[in-house]
Amino acid sequence: MLLGAGCSSGPGDACKAAADCPGHLCLSSTDGFSDGYCSADCSAAACAAGQRCLPVGEHNVCLSPCADRSSCRGGYQCFQGVCQPNCKSDDACGLGYLCKNTTCGVRPGTKNGGSCGADGDCSSTACVNNVCAQVCNRDADCGGGATCALDRDASTLRALCVPGRSGSAPLFGCQSDDDCTQGSCLMGACLLLCATPGDCGTPAGSQSCKKVPAPLAALPVDAWPG
């Protein structure tokens, strides 16, 4: 049964409005969360202990922790350690995962760090220098001092988690990726790969996440984005 406005609920519980949730955010069915999902915005502040910050739509939000599917409400799966909506397609699971019976699971193949001869040998679908590499969509996907950078040698547009470098901070000038501590060198500046504006640092709203056409070499210089 759904909670009425003004009733208190916990992270991941059903909701109708922001007032139902301690974090003052109710993710709706429009976002793919059936019967609502109590959450909090983590674009500028960390989630509570145990929760995980993930991109949903144009925002980064906190999702409730879980041990297995039984820890989540009906219509939700336990994926990446948090309760998320059941999947309907592989795209809903993200890079390196497949959707089977409404549940996301690791693609078959060699795990990251294992030897490979081609992209298809790896669960991540990325074989780099005969080693399976972790693919990413945003800097936050890479931990342990790594950063998400474009794979300059790939025949299709993709990004990989690579070790952080010494060099210029994001938004400062560069001539190559090696000049940047994080991200990639695009249009002469060190830029972070992102999925939502919340990936772009604090204070929230001070920077934006924009699509950049790739490869830029295919565009005349006067058509490059500002």
Structure description:
With 226 residues, the protein is mainly β. 0% of the residues lie in helices and 24% in strands. It has strands at 25-27, 37-39, 52-56, 59-63, 76-79, 82-85, 97-100, 103-106, 127-128, 131-132, 135-136, 146-150, 159-163, 184-186, 189-191. The strands form 7 sheets. A 3-stranded antiparallel β-sheet has the order 11-13-12, with no helix packed on it. A hairpin with a 2-residue loop joins strand 9 (127-128) and strand 10. It is globular, with a radius of gyration of 19 Å. It starts with 24 loop residues before the first strand and ends in a 35-residue tail after the last strand.
Strand numbers in spatial order across the main sheet: 11-13-12
- The structure class reads mainly beta
- Anisotropy-based shape: globular
- Percent range for helical residues? under 10%
- First and last CA, distance: 50 Å
Nearest-angstrom radius of gyration?
A: 19 Å
Provide the residue-averaged pLDDT: 85
Low-confidence stretches: 1-7
Order of helices and strands: EEEEEEEEEEEEEEE
The tally of strands reads: 15
Strand content: 15-25%
Discrete helix count: 0
